[in-house]
Amino acid sequence: MNHDLLIRTLLLLSAVAACSGGSQGSGGGAGASGAGGGGSDASAPETTSTPCGVGAVAVGAAHTCVLTAAGGVRCWGADASGQLGDGGLLDRSTPPASDALLGVLAIAVGANHTCALMTTGGVRCWGSDQSGQLGDGATTPRASPPTSDVLTGVKALAAGAGHTCALMMSGGVRCWGSNMFGELGDGTTQSRNTPPAVDALTGAVGIAAGTAHTCALMTNGGVRCWGRNTFGQLGDGTTDDRSSPPGNDVVADAAVISAGSTHTCIVTKSGGVRCWGGNADGQLGDGTPEDRSTPPTVDALTGVSSVAAGNLFTCALTTEGGVRCWGYNSDGQLGDDTELAVERRSPADRDVLGGAEAVAVGAADTCVLMKSGGIRCWGANDNGQLGNDMAPNRLIAPPAGDLAGLDPRCP
Q1: Is the pLDDT of residue 53 over 50?
Q2: Number of domains making up the chain
Q3: Confidence band of 341 (pLDDT split at 50, 70, 90)
Q4: pLDDT single digits (tens) 283-325
Q5: pLDDT > 50? residue 281
Q6: Residue ranges with strand state E in 228-371
């Protein structure tokens, strides 16, 4: 297939409202762009530019955000839509030395927008608003976080390229923004620029937002998805889009969900990874290039605690703290130092990095939160999203040297 054409198409979709990736719960990644090039390792930013301890990381199309241990949000990379939240529109290639927002419990990053779940249960978003994904009643981009919430009573967030979803404290799911394929789940294909007053679905414990589809993890471990289904990413055995959540689960034993650009992945309660949807680049990890419209019955990888589905690739965090990735490798996002533009159709038999606490993926880059509180990133770096001062793309996961993490001078 023509990967460059597909990636350019995904970029175009994000511009008109449909593109991204997300993960279960309050954080999310996105998949919407791609960049060529290769390169070598580079030094990390000065410690004066690093937050003192990181609690979470989220990756967008070309920007990266962290939640510090103190509840602050700091972002770097692309900023054309104000998604960094620093008040400007200039890309930055190193982490900032100050927080864009404080009092934050969790973060979710879409293609070109960023959202924060406040400790009070409120939601605040900034960056691109072309489809109303900020939820503030407008369609004008914001370069700084707002001072008021667009929704309250929220437990977790997920951000797609053009839409944002909230998991309510009550277990309800509410989405706003782009609705080109029915990803809001409200029974229409009409976009909306404010959060709805009613739930699209109840009984959920987790959410994930993909390019143009949304999935919910139910209290019983079931998974239900809606929105775009061109590649079978809804898992319902068809390729028909749906604008409302289904009444039945497509799988029954999920513990974690993640939605990518064209595919969906779960971690089963027994620790296995299973993915369905688009598979032209091996992102399902089943050893084939064939799309599948139903969840598989066998695991692609076992011993896994979480999974992150990105743009044509997937990464898993093992229970031992290892990271393994498969799928498309346009910019070194798999971290295994293999040939670029070559797919890996099955998970590798060894970790590219150990000591990891969480993994987040974007369009063509991967970031890991280390157990020490540090951040390490690899893959595409066109907009400085790796945070290493515009060094070339990284083809291998950095074995040492955290980018933004626990400063030894912290009290």
Answers
A1: yes
A2: 1
A3: confident
A4: 999 999 999 999 999 999 999 999 999 999 999 999 999 999 9
A5: yes
A6: 254-259, 263-268, 273-277, 304-309, 313-318, 323-327, 356-361, 365-370
In a domain, 399, yes or no: no
Question: Cα–Cα–Cα angle for 349, 2, 215, nearest 5°?
Answer: 60
Q: Is 400 among the domain residues?
A: no
Residues spanned by the domain of 295 = 3-379
- Distance in angstroms (rounded) separating the CA atoms of residues 62 and 52: 23
pTM above threshold 0.90: no
- The CATH number of the domain holding residue 370 is 2.130.10.30
The DSSP string of 67-106 is: EETTS-EEEEE--TTSTT-SSS---BSS--SS-SB-SEEE
Place of tokens 């974690």: 256
Closest CA to 294 of 353, 363, 238: 238
How far is Cα 377 from Cα 366, in angstroms, rounded to an integer?
A: 6
Q: Is residue 392 part of a domain?
A: no
Q: Is the pLDDT of residue 407 over 90?
A: no
Q: Residue 384 falls within a domain, yes or no?
A: no
Cite the beta strand spans of 146-290 per DSSP E.
Answer: 154-159, 163-168, 173-177, 204-209, 213-218, 223-227, 254-259, 263-268, 273-277
Q: Which two tokens stand for residue 385?
A: 């999203």
> What residues form DSSP beta bridges with 277?
263, 292
Strand 365-370 relative to strand 323-327, pairing = unpaired
Which of 255, 305, 271, 265 shows the shortest CA–CA distance to 286? 265
